[in-house]
């Protein structure tokens, strides 16, 4: 399933030349951080690598009540107030921008602040509302954070590659245009890992973001910064992207909602990446938010802009208005174990709890053993590295930046740098289709409405440890939409004790299961799960999420 | 652009063993042809390889008036009568089945007749109507022909490969299911060329179908039989498929309408082909018909069955109801020459004529020079053979059947059997995307509603001569929907004289332009053109076609 990757990319001598550029970039980040909004450094924990520190719990103590009153509201409720003139864009903006600044002190999630631009935009939106008596769009005045992966006109977009640190892009990503036209306010771009191919986060530019629930832990990746800032209420909603789990891992580990939509409903045009001509697995952009209903708002607003008018690869499927399902109409299949890596105790507890919640609500719940997972993982790994890693290695070698451990791991996927011919590539695509068909039939034959499964075999991980992507990547391979949601439970070392009786079935399971060696490290990590629906049934998945949200808040 | 292909597949010794199977197949075809419906052989022309014979003009002389009264009606008008009980399915069926039988005597288009099944189905539909007072669906009782390329439960599907001549498939193609559910009656499956990768037709099973307008000429391919049977009124509408021009060449050469829809709107599930795991260029199924409005009926009826419920690769975009455009709202860009192969005199006449028709109707018409055609042709050719022809060669070698000239030509596309690595394949995909983008921008920047261009550089060809696919394959590469329509003009040796002053710009042009050496050979061949719209704007393309149909019949 994995081969050993030999690092020929790192070049300390060359990298030395690039270091001043990184320093310059970081200086700009610092300069563009509003000092007056930061909390006193005395309020920051000192030993975050040794002691779990919950930055979210600390937030109410370090931000003003007037700020908290705004940022703690769901985006869809804020949007309603902004659209009806019951809240100004400027007040909303300042509250989130302050929280975003403080959030960065705790979690180091930011790549770039441009708060002055955001403020100007908020002022313009208020002026527009005053003049016309109506909002510019459904997201009028909502501060939204952006993963540093999507082009913004006249700004650098490097996608965490040092060699692109001066890459000024001359277009806006179409999705950013859609969000802007819908009324969003931009002010911060957030961190991803090197190559964007880790399920956790670390890059050679801004280093390592942290998980706000427990600063010892990783926030997940690759939309790492989005997970952290949305959880820290530093933005009303965020924008991530996912080719293997990159929206869902950060959403799950940071305890927020995250949707990986069906491919080609949201535009990927004008984004920076190292996947030239790769369409066997399609990267998708989607929202992260703190409430189920916010996900619906985001999707409805972006698709409402008809992205297909700007990007001919987007399928012209409007966002359909569907009702919240009734429990008795649903049959949910739970995947307790994918057969490759057994979930750690806290995830097992989450699944058992959800089974109880769903059953008690009158939903039919069945156990599903997912077919062909090992084959799916092998297939997607080979596809990821189908160009022998060339696109990524070219960008890495240019700066000679050191390869981080999870970069080496991901570059070793499949055949690693071994050459693959086009026939093999097509065979893998064919296998993908056959697995896709099998899941399609599984749901139809058993009349299953949705599948419920782990996001990953564990809660948020210790940094640079995640190697198994199967729980998320399976769905990228066969392109079924997924909604990650927090169960409301958190890891508790007293309850989620190590199960030392379990005998792993493989090397990868031995490694991954072994990561849960000391429950005390993971204290407070959110227990999140993943809801999966049929292709293009994004609307139904989100609405089922809203029902689950109702059930969980009872 | 093309490499030499060395034939190692043909094996006369092995093929000898397969010949009895072919004979058995042909005997069955003969047995299933209703002798009592055939015309006397004395009515058939004897020297069809030497003298142009127009079978369409002969049709009214050889079929009964009662038959002609039915088969000459547009499908959408028949459908209305069938749906309202003003015509029975049996009467309709028998008329078309008789014409289909006679059409085969002239054009040799059929692969398989199953007229008894068709009659039984028609009787059942009449019984249904009698009992329920309503039709089963929008196509209630319409006899529809099918290319022999789509699975039909318990029937052989060989897709013109001798080695598959006993391949009994156990599923129905989803599109066939959709047509059936909509009320269609099936009774004949039609011929395609060896490998389905010719723009004309010839296979080692049933030989060569002929063009009904001039039996010396080819009907085009690969939906060869569909072009012939629809033109000969042997079915109310047909079902073709197109990965390089295979709906459009037969439609154009046979003087009927043909739509190549945007990919993934009509299901390709459960079809036989040799393109395992190939998604860089996507084959699409679409209708052939004698009237513009019939195309709309076919698409609306098939998509109305929600093919995405049976095939998760179909995008759930309902067939939208759009109005026929007003001439003043349109700007049509005409491509007179793609820069690679200049169209022959009759096609030039067709373009000039259409410019006049459109302009006089008040439509703004501009000339468009299509960008990057050579690059597009090279890209798609390399993609076609990206598995080094392996899928096709495996199926050919199994029977050792002789490779026909156009098979060798197509197998020599791109790199031929030279090995391509997955990185190159991805580079080609990337080039495709960049060309797609360029045409998207071209239409948006110049505010062009539709493009009008040749279907091929000539009218229907002498058999096994077409080598240039650029006029159709360009649109497969970048997936823009196309509607082929007859201008109502026909090649006339007196008007369409050879232009010997023209100096070809390349070897391929020299060859292709040189095919129009003797205008008398092409007499009576329909002059057809191709209308192209934006991706997913199939509805708009069809409605513009209806406007053009109105203008042409004025």
Automatic annotation (TrEMBL), chains A, B:
Presence of the UniProt keyword Hydrolase in the record: yes
Domain Amidase: 95-541
Catalysed reactions, as listed in the record: a monocarboxylic acid amide + H2O = a monocarboxylate + NH4(+)
Keywords, alphabetical: Hydrolase
First-level EC class: hydrolase
Residues that hold substrate according to the record: 196, 222, 243-246
UniProt-listed Enzyme Commission number(s): 3.5.1.4
Active site: 147, 222, 246
GO molecular function term, any single one: amidase activity
Domain of life: Eukaryota
InterPro entries per the UniProt record, alphabetical: Amidase_CS, Amidase_dom, AS_sf
Spans traversing the lipid bilayer: none
Keyword Zinc-finger: no
PANTHER family, per database record: AMIDASE C550.07-RELATED, AMIDASE-RELATED-RELATED
Entry similarity comment: Belongs to the amidase family.
Record protein name field: amidase
Organism, scientific name: Pichia sorbitophila (strain ATCC MYA-4447 / BCRC 22081 / CBS 7064 / NBRC 10061 / NRRL Y-12695)
């Amino acid at each position: 399933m994995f081969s050993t990757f030999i690092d020929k990319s790192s070049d300390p001598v060359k990298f030395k030349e690039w270091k001043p550029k990184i320093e310059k970039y970081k200086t700009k980040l610092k300069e563009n951080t509003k000092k007056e909004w930061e909390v006193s450094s005395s309020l920051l924990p000192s030993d975050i690598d040794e002691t779990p520190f919950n930055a979210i719990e600390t937030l109410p103590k370090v931000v003003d009540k007037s700020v908290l009153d705004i940022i703690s509201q769901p985006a869809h409720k804020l949007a309603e107030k902004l659209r009806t003139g019951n809240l100004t864009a400027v007040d909303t903006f300042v509250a989130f921008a302050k929280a975003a600044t403080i959030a960065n002190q705790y979690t180091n999630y930011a790549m770039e602040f441009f708060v002055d631009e955001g403020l100007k935009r908020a002022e313009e939106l208020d002026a527009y509302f005053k003049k016309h008596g109506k909002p510019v769009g459904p997201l009028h005045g909502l501060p939204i954070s952006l993963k540093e992966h999507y082009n913004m006109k006249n700004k650098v977009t490097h996608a965490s590659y040092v060699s692109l640190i001066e890459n000024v892009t001359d277009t806006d990503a179409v999705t950013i245009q859609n969000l802007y036209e819908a009324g969003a306010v931009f002010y911060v771009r957030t961190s991803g890992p090197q190559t964007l191919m880790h399920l956790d986060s670390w890059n050679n530019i801004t280093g390592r973001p942290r998980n706000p629930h427990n600063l010892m832990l990783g926030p997940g990746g690759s939309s790492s910064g989005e997970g952290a800032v949305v959880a820290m209420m530093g933005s009303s909603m965020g924008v991530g992207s996912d080719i293997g789990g990159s929206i869902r891992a950060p959403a799950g580990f940071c305890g927020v909602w995250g949707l990986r939509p069906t491919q080609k409903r949201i535009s990927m045009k004008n984004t920076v990446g190292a996947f030239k001509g790769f369409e066997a697995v399609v990267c998708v952009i989607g929202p992260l938010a703190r409430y189920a209903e916010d996900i619906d708002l985001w999707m409805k607003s972006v698709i409402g802009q008809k992205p297909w008018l700007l990007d001919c690869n987007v399928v012209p499927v409007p966002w359909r208005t569907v009702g919240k399902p009734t429990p008795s109409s649903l049959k949910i299949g739970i995947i307790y174990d994918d057969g490759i890596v057994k979930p750690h105790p806290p995830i097992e507890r989450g699944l058992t709890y959800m089974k109880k919640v769903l059953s008690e609500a009158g939903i039919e719940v069945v156990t599903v053993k997912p077919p062909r997972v090992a084959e799916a993982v092998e297939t997607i790994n080979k596809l990821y590295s189908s160009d022998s890693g060339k696109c990524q290695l070219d960008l890495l070698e240019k700066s000679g930046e050191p390869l981080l451990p999870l970069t080496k791991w991901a570059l070793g996927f499949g055949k690693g740098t071994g050459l693959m011919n086009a026939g093999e590539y097509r065979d893998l695509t064919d296998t993908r289709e056959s697995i896709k068909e099998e899941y399609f039939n599984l749901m139809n034959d058993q009349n299953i409405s949705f599948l419920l499964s782990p996001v990953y075999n564990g809660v948020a991980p210790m940094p640079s440890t995640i190697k198994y992507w199967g729980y998320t990547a399976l769905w990228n391979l066969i392109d079924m939409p997924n909604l990650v949601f927090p169960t409301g439970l958190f890891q508790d070392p007293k309850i989620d004790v190590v199960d030392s009786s379990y005998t792993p079935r493989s090397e990868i399971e031995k490694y991954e299961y072994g990561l849960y060696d000391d429950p005390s490290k993971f204290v407070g990590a959110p227990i999140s799960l993943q809801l999966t629906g049929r292709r293009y049934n994004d609307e139904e998945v989100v609405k089922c999420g809203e029902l689950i949200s109702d059930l969980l808040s009872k």
